[in-house]
Amino acid sequence: MEKEYITYQKEKGYPTGKNIYYECTLCNTNVNSLPETFSECKCGNIMIDVPMARLMINDKEHFKIFKFVKNKK
Ligand SMILES: [Zn+2]
Asked: Considering the entire predicted model, what is its pTM?
């Protein structure tokens, strides 16, 4: 599987999906965009509050969005 980075577009909001992850480049943790329970990266920069359906990012400079794609042969 390879990472394919997604450019954040303000009009569209943050993409979510089972194969879409948020990456914190401060602590190098990947957080699934559709977690089943409250989820956060190790340093707390990215937090996903599932009951509130809210994504909270403290430092957007250290926030990336990517999805896993199958290796092209
Ligand atoms: Zn972090």
From this structure: 0.90
- 10 Å CB burial of residue 57 (0-12, 13-18, 19+) is middle
Give ion ligand 1 contacts, CB < 5 A: 24, 26-27, 41, 43, 45
Distance 59 CA to ligand 1 centre (A): 9
At 11-25, the pLDDT tens digits run: 999 999 999 999 999
Q: Where are the domains of the chain?
A: 2-69
Q: Distance, CA 21 to ligand 1 centroid (Å)?
A: 13
Q: Do 49 and 38 form a contact (C-beta atoms < 8 A)?
A: yes
